[in-house]
Amino acid sequence: MTQDKTNFTSQQDRLPPQSIEAEEVILGGIMLDPSAMSRISDRLSADAFYINAHKDIYQAALRLYSQGLPTDLLCITNWLSDNGLLFRIGGRNKLASLVDRTVSAVNIDVLADLVMEKYQRRQLILAGTEIVQLGYATETDLPVILDEAEQKVYSIASEHSASDLVHISHALADTFTEIEARHTGKGSPAASSGFYDLDNILGGGFRKGRLYVLAARPSVGKSALAGNLALNVAKTGKMPICVFSLEMSTDEYVQRFLSSESGIENNFLETGNVSDSQWQPLSVAIAQLSEQQIFINDESCPSLNEIRSQVRRISSHYGGVGLVIIDYLQLMALDTDSRVNMAQRVGEISRGLKRLAKDLDVPVLALSQLNREVEHRNDKRPVLSDLKDSGAVEQDSDVVIMLYREEMYNPDTPDRGIAELVVRKQRNGPTGTVKLLFDHQFTRFKNLSRGRSF
Fold it and tell me: Residue 278 and residue 289: Cα distance in Å, rounded?
């Protein structure tokens, strides 16, 4: 009996995980009851079989099934014979013995899951062997090695949930359930931003698998708004938030969180000029913030591989991630190939972040700078063409939000303390403008209008 010769040389004294009996019952079952094939064809691959002869037999069954032909003993025998494989699998007697030993196909679903589990365990052993070899590849940068090693294990864990064609009837049922949940207020597939009007225009908030871009000129408050969004999503969604701050340190981000939560001006915290009456709210804010699952990385130039790896670890440990924030795009691009112009580098980063959002099923909010052209117009409200360095950012993003404060250009404006969030692009929804209150001394944004249901 020939078994799978996948390289398990480091474990020669131990038999790799397998269930030959389960494999035999599955093969006997689909020949005894060809209708059983429909229950396992999309969940059990031929590679999952440990015995090579079993792989050939199951592959024959898959070919017949795909052609709408029965997988009974006669059809499988003829297919193997016509393709020169009958002798290799042990002849007609091998097939007949599989049928004779099988009582029914009633438990074929459970057995298929068992065979797949054993296969994944063998794949894990193989990945471990390959990771050992990666460790010796000293000519390759360590971050690249670590990401490749992590990806090998992650691919095994996610193999069972690979995407497949979905019949519209199933998609309609899921969509109706989501609409009904939103209508009754029992749930939303989006992570609430904490700002009513912004949630309204975004269809509930930040949605998984989408890339959001928040753009503004320097000092307008995009990092402050990103911090507010991180805290709001963490509170309302009860999910981890990953913040990659390439510009501010972790201490600076945390200090802004404390100012916003405690109601103590940021400059007081910066100088340590805290009054006796302020220590109590500061302590309460620290206790409340400690309960939030917010993770901050202030490495100056993390690579896309490093970001993907860290988000993947948080997602695996906590069962998902509510929001990933990148502060900001152009700084990430500085650490990429200097032989390529900045526009191309920013484009590569934006495409990588879009892939990250889809692959890890998380919403990604990337902050971006705007070019100086906006300063030379009468109306300083930014437009899509103001995105700095790359039109690819506009193309890759699902939503582009531009932050504008009239008081930055007109100190005497009656709109002092008002921030405009101008949604210039939304792939699956409307565009428009949302107004928020901006309390600069506490680096805090607030709802301007009362919440509306959506």
Answer: 16
CATH number reported for the structural domain that contains residue 139 in this entry:
1.10.860.10
User: Distance between CA 95 and CA 85 in Å, rounded?
Assistant: 12
Element (H, E) at 398: none
Residue 444, classed as helix, strand or coil, is strand
Residue 276 DSSP label: G
Say what the pTM is: 0.65
DSSP state of 144: H
CB 3 within 8 A of CB 30: no
Q: What is the CATH number of the domain that holds 371?
A: 3.40.50.300
Position of tokens 């064609």?
A: 165
> DSSP string covering 24-88, please?
HHHHHHHHH-GGGHHHHTTT--GGG-SBHHHHHHHHHHHHHHHTT---SHHHHHHHHHHTT-TTT
The type of residue at 348 is E
CB distance 213 to 393 below 8 Å: yes
Dump pLDDT digits (tens) for 132-182.
988 898 888 888 888 788 778 777 766 554 445 566 766 677 777 767 766
